[in-house]
Structure formats: C-alpha cells, structure tokens
Amino acid sequence: MVFYKSLIQWYLQNKRDLPWRKTDNPYFIWLSEIMLQQTRVAQGLPYFLSFTEAFPTVFDLANAPEEKVLKLWQGLGYYSRARNLHATAKHVAYNLDGKFPATYKELLKLKGVGDYTAAAIASISYGEPVPVVDGNVYRVLSRYFGVDTDISSTQAKAEFRELAGSQLPKDSAADFNQAIMEFGALQCVPKSPDCTNCIFNANCVAYATGRVGELPVKLKKTKVTNRYFNYLIVKDANSNSLMQKRTAKGIWHNLYEFPLLETVTEVPEKQTVQLINTFPGFDFPVTDIKLLTPVNVIHKLSHQHLHIRFWEVKTNNVVKNALSNDELRELPVPVVIHNFIDKHWV
Q1: Is the same domain home to 68 and 164?
Q2: Which end of the chain lies in a sparser environment, N or C, as judged by fewer CB atoms within 10 Å?
Q3: Residue 243 and residue 258 in contact, taking contact as beta carbons nearer than 8 Å
Q4: Same-domain pairing of 242 and 325
Q5: Is 33 a catalytic residue?
Q6: 94-124 pLDDT, tens digit each
Q7: Residue 277: which residues within 8 A CB-CB, separation 6 or more?
Q8: Is residue 18 part of a domain?
Q9: pTM higher than 0.85 for the full model?
Q10: 37: domain range?
Q11: Catalytic one among 33, 66, 106, 257?
Q12: Torsional sign, CA 99, 8, 183, 177
C-alpha cells in the first residue's frame, strides 16, 4: 500500500465541502489558514464567510479601518492574528500590487505567516511541493509510523517535516497536504478514533502496538497564570457608559473594554467596593456600586485564566466621553465582554 495514494483517495471521497477548497486564490487560502490557526473549522467558517463578503479582495481588507477588522474578528480569539492579517494585507496591496508571493520562502517573509501557513499557501495556490506540519499532521504521522518524538521538543518540527516531505507526491502537493490535515481532523482524531474503520489500520504502528492513546507524545505542559479582573460598568445621568482601548501589548491589544480594576488575588466584595470608590480613573462622585455577577466569569485563554467580575457603578453626573448603548455596541470588544453585554444590557 502506498501511503499517499490511499490518503488522497480517502480525501477525495470524504473531504468536507468548504469554500476555500473551491479556489486556489492565495488571498482566500491565506485568509482561511490564518483564521483556522488554533480554531476549529466549524467556528472559523462563519468568520471566513463574513470576511470574504466584507473584504472580497486584499485591497478591500487593506483599506478597511482596523476597528472594522477587529469587530468582524470578535469572538475568534488570538487577536494578534487579526492585527497581523491587516498589516499583511496592507503590505501585499500597497507594496506588492496585490499579488501574494508565489514561493514558500517568500511567503515566510509576510507578517503572521509561519512555516505551516506558508507551506499551505505555496502548495495549494502554487503547487509547490512543500509539506505542511500542524497538530493534525503530527498526530497522523506519529501514529502511522510509530514516532515517539516529543512534539513539543525543539527537534520535532524538523523531524516531522522531513517525514511528511518523504511521503509528499511532487505533482499532488495540494491534495496531499489537504488530505493529511483532513484525515487528522475527521478520522485520526485526538481522542477515541475509530481505528477499526480506518483505511490504515493494517499498517498503522500505533494501532498494531496498542499505542493510539499515547501518540503523539507531548511532555511540555503549558503554564497557566490566573488573573483577577473587575470590570466597572459606569452608568451616568444619561445611562451612558465608559469604554477604554487596551493599548498595552498582551491580550486583547487594541480592543475596547470597560474600566478595569485588576488585582493580584481575588479580593472580597467589601474591599473591592472600597477600591472602586477610590478608583483613579473616576473624577466623578459614585452614588452606588452593585456586583452584577455573584459568580465569577471564568474566561480561559491559552496561557491565562481570567477570573472576571462585573460591577455597576452609578453616578448622578454626566460623565465626559461616556458612550450610548448604540455607540458602545459598535466597538470591537473581547468576547467575554460581548457576551456580558448581550446578556445583561438593557
């Protein structure tokens, strides 16, 4: 049995009907690959459709205000992807006459484009025989060939890239790369794969040796930091509220949020009320403070767990720069704030 032939045959019979599979336009391939980094297809698909409707060409994306790009990206997470996406669109539109680089090496020079994305675009759009290596590829190859290299180790990417390259048919790079990713997403899934109905079960080392659940090997644990956020929802005499832009580097850069009181540990309610009363950003008298979320909202990011409480802070004054509900809803915000507004806003 030839691995790549069986894989491509499986793919042609089982692949999902996805819009970026119907084109080799590098703009659409690039857009889909950036969106699908660390994102499931079911979650990313509506965003792809929204972006391609709003920005049908790279020039449309390049000319869009950043706030519109971030607003459309809202809820997809890892917002640095959106900012890099916008920056790269400007570079391609303004410096490259709207034409994406046609080789893997040149694609790597684009902001936000790493090995995997460059290989995907180069192979799918231009037919360059360069292998993709992502989580799905690690899983399929490690199980089929019985590779127990720790995928979080420094040598893993080069090892798996070489192995994938050795199986890659030079004249069918696009189909092979999409096939191995699709196989990992649909058949050779992380937990409890249906190995009895797998086309490779007669030759799969992991299946033959009972190690499907052990491969791929990943030893490095992600260190998680806990952070404690208190969001202060100001309600002034006009029922308007304050929002601020996160300009510091880190999570949610350039998104908007309510005034934030962050503490090192979780502070009891009574002490938090005292801190809110002396909040340095408020130059108006506070008449009432009420906790709106008795149970903390836990928002999990890749390296951080945010423990969030929302507080209503009332004042009888008219607060300068406060926004109406309609104005507030136009701003790009983190999904946890978007969800709060949808649930609690009057």
Answers
A1: yes
A2: C
A3: yes
A4: yes
A5: yes
A6: 999 999 999 999 999 999 999 999 999 999 9
A7: 286, 289
A8: yes
A9: yes
A10: 3-214
A11: 33
A12: negative
